[in-house]
Amino acid sequence: MTEVTDGQSDQAQQKIKQWLNKPMRVSIVDGRVLVGVLLCTDRDQNLILGNCNEYIGSPSEQEEFRVLGLALIPGQHIKSIYIDEGSSPTQSSNPSHTSITTTNDHILDDDKSDG
């Protein structure tokens, strides 16, 4: 088990604060993809997304979706998270995104370009 230092914890909190109110795409273990705006998270890695739409598989313009509105996603069901840093919540064309992979212990940033 990996032990998280105070510096790592502070850095993770700052990163999550930057992601608040940003559009994101969350893949869950059963194959569904939820697209919405990050509103809240907690120490158990649960997420709350606002203006959330549910897709079966990858979201595309031709694929049908279901409007969920406000959605709570339990942390243990999250497979991957993509933060869309290049658009507003209503834009969906070619997002520039940061990929994150989750583990049971903590969230790991897969984007190594930050240094």
Blueprint of the fold:
Elements: H1 6-19, E1 23-28, E2 32-41, E3 47-56, E4 66-73, E5 78-84, E6 97-102, E7 107-109
Antiparallel strand pairs: 1-2, 1-5, 2-3, 3-4, 5-6, 6-7
Compact summary:
By secondary structure, this protein is mainly beta. It has one helix spanning 6-19, and strands spanning 23-28, 32-41, 47-56, 66-73, 78-84, 97-102, 107-109. A hairpin with a 5-residue loop joins strand 2 (32-41) and strand 3.
What attributes does this structure have?
single chain, 115 residues, mainly beta, 7-stranded antiparallel beta sheet
By DSSP (H or I, 4+ residues per run), the number of helices equals 1
Distance between the termini: 24 Å
Order of helices and strands: HEEEEEEE
Strand order of the largest sheet: 4-3-2-1-5-6-7
Averaged pLDDT: 78
Give a quick account of the main beta sheet: strands, pairing sense, barrel closure: 7 strands, antiparallel
Q: Which spans of ≥5 residues are poorly predicted at pLDDT below 50? A: 88-97, 101-115
Q: What structural class is derived from the secondary structure elements?
A: mainly beta
Number of strand segments? 7
Percentage of residues in DSSP E strands: 35-45%
Write structural notes for this entry.
The chain has 1 helix and 7 strands, in the order αβββββββ. It has about 120 residues and is mainly beta. It has a 7-stranded antiparallel beta sheet, with no helix packed on it. Strand 2 (about 30-40) and strand 3 (about 45-55) form a beta hairpin. The relative contact order is 0.20.
